[in-house]
Write a structure and sequence with these properties.
The complex is a heterodimer of chains A (216) and B (281). Chain A is an all-alpha fold and 216 residues long. Chain A has one domain. Helices cover 84% and strands 0% of the residues of chain A. Chain A has nine helices and no strands. Chain A is globular, with a radius of gyration of 19 Å. Chain B is α/β, with parallel strands linked by helices and 281 residues long. Chain B is 35% helix and 28% strand. In chain B, the strands form three sheets. In chain B, strands 6-7-8-3-9-10 form a six-stranded mixed beta sheet, sandwiched between helices. Chain B has a four-stranded antiparallel beta sheet with strand order 2-1-4-5, with helices on one face. Chain B is elongated. Chain B starts with a strand and ends with a helix. The chains are: A mainly alpha (216), B alpha/beta (281). Chains A and B meet through helix 1 and helix 4 of A and helix 2 and helix 3 of B.
Chain lengths: 216, 281
Amino acid sequence: MRGLIEKDLRLTLVRKQTIAIFLLMALFMGLSMKGSFVVSYVTMLAMIIATSTISYDEYDNGMAFIFTMPFDRRTYVREKYLFNLIMAIGAWVFGILVYGILDLIRNNGAGLGEIPMLVTVVPCIYMVAAIMIPLQLYFGTEKGRLALAVLFGAIVVVVMAGSSVIKSSVNPLAAVAKALDGLPVAASILLVFAGAAILTGISYLCSVRIVEKKEF
Amino acid sequence: MVKVENLVKNYGNFKLELSMEIADGRVTGIVGKNGAGKSTTIKSILGLIKPDGGHVTINGVEAERLSSRDKEKIGVSLSDSGFSMLLSIRDIICILKKMYPAFDEAFFTNSCKAQGLPMNKQIKEYSTGMRAKLRALIAMSHGAQLLVMDEPTAGLDVEARNDILDMIRNYLREDDKRSVLISSHISSDLEGLCDDIYLIHDGKVVLHEDTDAILDNYGVLKVSEEAYEQLDKSYILRSRKDSFGYSCFTNEKHYYAENNPGIVIENSGIDDLILMMTGGN
């Protein structure tokens, strides 16, 4: 596992210039935009970088050699989820630092109270990774991106249709939405974490099944 | 060390169906034409593909169920796969250190330097020969008891090929229990290295023989049509019609030399073995 994390870290650091540009953009966004968008932005970018290590593994038939090294297929999958989590948390901390420092300078720290709620950025964006990882493993890099685009398109349609249903009439969904709206912050945070944990669990099992069936 | 028992793997019309064994301390070669099943055999041994039938075991453990400890004792060099080309040797050292508890950093670094491999350049900037040397050195960097090398010298010039073969010989000299499974289509590489050779054709083992026996006992008889009719064919493995008559491949060239004075016998090597056993009648 340590060797795999080292490999992914090295593959990530290969793109130092890209990462530096991302971080500069984050700083620029933090300076030019109000609010906490920068936190979600850098966390999302870190997630994209982390999941792209699967593409690097696949490139030039690299998977065949990778799987001759001393770990099993399940460990490979576990490492991908762990690496994504490490990257998400690292980027989130960076985003929070940018946001917090700028808020202290601009507003004497008036916006720092938002930070507890911003903790949910990590599980929310990690859920995207939980969808991306099995798709990339199953379809490969190119088809995986296409599958992801189709999936997110479908999610947008479902969400839009769902919100119009909630708004348009009295129904059980509206009651659920109202109940969620009234939840205390701590409960909302817990709910997001629980949702991410369930989705990650399902995603992990799917990924293990995909990788265990693969031939290289 | 490695036992392949009745291995079956189907790919459309192609069917691999073979058994083989690599004993401790032996260097076993696999030869055959392109598409004969060499890489499929190696991938089955490494657990990269799932057999449709039969068993592949390494030290008694099924290839698909090898633990991390078991895999640490295997060094692998694949012709078409390796670490990402974006990494440098410095990166690879850091990865191998964490991947293999027995990784010998001093040996690896010194060997890379001795072979003229730049430590900080990305692998994509290396020549074909440099990449092949790096793949071989990675396989040997952690004291593996079994080296599995798929076409480690393919596409290389004579000097680079000799460098890699010397690396393998030195590696074997350090511990006489080390085994090597190597596939190649360059016969001279195998003749000077392997203890025994498996010839694979159309997914089947058509011949398994000690290299010394191939070089000492096998030969090609060149005979006219009349001489062919009268020839004792007890030890003729394959024969092929030629412009002058027949080329006959035998595993008892001394028998024919003694019993047929004046017969033309060419010493055979692995190239003849492949040509005659996979192309003759």
